[in-house]
Structure formats: C-alpha cells, structure tokens
Amino acid sequence: MQIESAVSLKPYNSFGLPAVAHTLVRITGDADVRRVVDHPQLGRSPKFILGGGSNIILTRDMPQVVLKVEVMGKRLLEERADAWVVEAGAGENWHDFVAWTLAQDHPGLENLALIPGTVGASPVQNIGAYGIEMKDRFESLDCVDLLTGRTLTLNAETCAFGYRDSEFKRSLAGRVLITRVRFRLPKPWQPVLGYLELERKMTETGTFTPTPQQVADWICAIRRAKLPDPAVVGNAGSFFKNPVVTPEQCRDIIGRDPEIVHYPMPDGSMKLAAGWMIDACGWKGKTVGRAGVYEKQALVLVNRGGAIGSEVMTLALAIQESVYGRFGIRLETEPVVV
Ligand code: EPU
User: Fold this and answer.
1) Which of 29, 104, 121, 294 has its Cβ near the most Cβ atoms within 10 Å?
2) 269 is catalytic
3) How many angstroms is it from 299 CA to the middle of ligand 1?
4) 75 beta partners
5) CA–CA gap between residue 320 and residue 184 (Å, rounded)
6) What is the C-alpha to C-alpha distance for residues 172 and 166, in angstroms, rounded to an integer?
C-alpha cells in the first residue's frame, strides 16, 4: 500500500476546484481497505472516500485520509430466466460500464448513459436520468466497514434509496467504502421511452422500436446538447435537487406562477423543476466571480476558469436566496460540499 502526501485533488474533481489531500491512499480491493484500517496511524484518522469526483465541491484542503477508490473489473455474474446480473468494481467509469453492458448484449442501463462518475458512486446518490434510477436496476453491493475492515454485502432495503439519496449519505456516510456493485437487468428488455425528449427522438427519426444501443445514442445526444462536458467545462451536473412539495404548496405556487414546470410523484407529492425556477429568476448564463450558471441548463453551475470552491458556494447561495425570495422554496445542493 502506497501512502501519498500533499496530493493535488484538482485533477480528481470534475469541477476542477483546487484542494490538496494531506494523505491519499489508492484502494484497489478489499485488502487495501483492511490495510488502512489496521494501520497504526491511518486506522484511527478520519477518512474521506473519493470516487470519480463528479459530485463534490471542494472548498478547502482535506485533512482527512482520502481513500481514492480504484477497484476495477466487470463481469456477467449470473444469467437467470428473467434477468442478467452484472457486477462492476467501484472504480470503473460509469459510462464505460454502461457501454460494456450494451456491447455484451445485457441492456437495461442505456437511459443512464454518459452520467459522469464511477460505478461505486452510483448508489450513493442513486443516480437517475430519463425515467430510470439506479435503484430500478440494483441487485446488491459489497462494501468494507472502515472501523472493523470486514466486508459486508448490502441489499436495496439496507441502502434505503431515495431521490438522489441513500443511507450512504446518512448513517453509513464515512463508515463504509463500496468496492463492488451488482445490477439486475431484466429480461426481456423493455425500453423506457416515456421522457418527452425521447419521444421527440422517435418522431424525428421515425424509429418507434429502437434497439438498446439506439436509445443509448439518443440519450448521449440529448445530454451533449444541454449538459457541459466536464472535460471541457468544469461542473458537477445538477447543482440542486428538484424540490418535492405538497400538492397544496404546488397549487399555491401555480397560482402565482402558472408556467412552473411540475411533475406528480407516485406518492401524491409534486416535484418542481429547480432549473426552471433558477431560469425564471434570471440566472441562466450569469457569472459571479469565476463561477457561473450554464447557458443551456440553469440547474448546472460551471467553472468559468480558475474558480475556487468558495466562489461556487457564493453563487449557489445567491441563487438559493433569489429562488426562496420568489417561490418560498429552499433549494438543496445535490453534490457533497466538503
Ligand atoms: N428548464 C428550464 N430552464 C432551464 C433548465 C430547465 O426552463 O434552464 C425546464 C425544462 O425545460 C424542463 C424542466 O425544467 O421542462 C426540467 O428540465 P430537464 O428535463 O433538463 O431536467 P432537470 O429536472 O433539470 C433532471 C436531473 C438530471 C437528469 C434530467 C433528465 C436532477 C437534480 N437532475 O434534471 O440529472 O439528467 O432530469 O432525467 O434530478 C444530475 O443529477 O446531475 C443530472 C444531470
């Protein structure tokens, strides 16, 4: 196990924010985690788990031991009558994994193509897009307890997935390190095409029974058209969650702003489009310091070049205040702010 000191985290976070890890250890398997747990100094130190860095805002240097997850490998674990079960190491790039499942003819993750980040981070915030959430395809995961070094297998119930949420953001935060995730891809494959932008693609191309690869290509085109590529413009995807309100609150807001974009949720509550609200407050394309609001999607904050974490958070606070002032809604940040 190699212990690295004073490591710049700028290349390891998709917003491109500067921060230094006092100590960094690369984790390639469960045994590496056990070595850290048993280490005389590192074992007792606070730890921070770093995946692909696509969902964090770094506002300061990291005194904790940064565990950079680099567990690799992907395989078909089991073929059942009604599903394929595939497994990937937590350090695998998410999109490469999705592309691999399609190449192997194990479809089911295509709506989640091109989401930045790693496989290991996907359960933490229960990534979702275009009508599918990770939890809809989740089978189980392995993680290592950072106090005991024991490997545990957790099912969906224990992970308690919610909208951009899971137990890994609550009681398990900083307590376990996810090493492998397994997904159940139902057979026969059924495309999920209910999203308006996908319906538009079907009409445009005249293809109403697309292949899984066709759906993946559409998703990539839709995302590229409105979300910035982190390799070109630093960002962390959606910066705020879409707020969920009661039907009464929603009616009240519609009374004042009839155009507000809203969706009914299965439990009767209403989800409001935070991007629409931020846009309505006039933020789209604006810049504050070296941070800005993306021109094509107001829910995404971007690094205009050389931004530091506190500039991003100053902009985020100003947006939260104006949305609260106009709609009475407090927007919650989606990435983890460190
Ligand atoms: N809208 C505006 N102006 C904007 C942005 C959005 O009017 O600047 C309107 C759109 O026209 C649309 C509505 O708001 O009517 C919703 O916008 P969009 O369809 O782009 O989706 P979103 O709710 O902003 C969510 C996810 C995305 C995911 C898309 C597609 C969250 C926080 N974000 O965005 O996830 O790709 O739906 O499923 O739930 C991410 O989490 O990083 C992410 C990109």
Assistant:
1) 121
2) no
3) 7
4) 87
5) 38
6) 9
| Ligand 1, pocket-test mutation among 227, 238, 257, most atoms within 8 A of CB | 238
Topology match between the domains 2-69 and 74-186 = no
Q: Decide whether any atom of ligand 1 lies within 6 Å of the 117 Cβ.
A: no
Locate 160 and state its tokens. 């308690």
Whether 171 is catalytic: no
| Cα(13) to centroid(ligand 1), Å | 22
Q: Which of 137, 164, 180, 223 is catalytic?
A: 164
**Assigned fold of 2-69:** 3.30.43
Q: What digits encode the pLDDT tens for the residues 165-219?
A: 999 999 999 999 999 999 999 999 999 999 999 999 999 999 999 999 999 999 9
pLDDT digit string, tens, across residues 116-144: 999 999 999 999 999 999 999 999 999 99
What are residue 142's DSSP bridge partners? 153, 180
CB-based contact 315:289 (threshold 8 Å): yes
User: Given 3.30.465.10, 3.40.50.970, 3.30.70.20, 3.40.50.10470, which CATH number is that of 74-186?
Assistant: 3.30.465.10
Pairing of strands 62-69, 47-50: parallel
- 3: Cβ contacts below 8 Å, ≥ 6 apart: 23, 24, 25, 42
Provide DSSP, 44-70.
Answer: GS-EEEESSSSSEE--S-EEEEEEEE-
Sequence ranges of the domains in the chain: 2-69, 74-186, 235-337
What token pair was written down for 254? 């519609």
Rounded to two decimals, the pTM is 0.95
E-strand spans in 279-321?
287-288, 291-293, 300-303
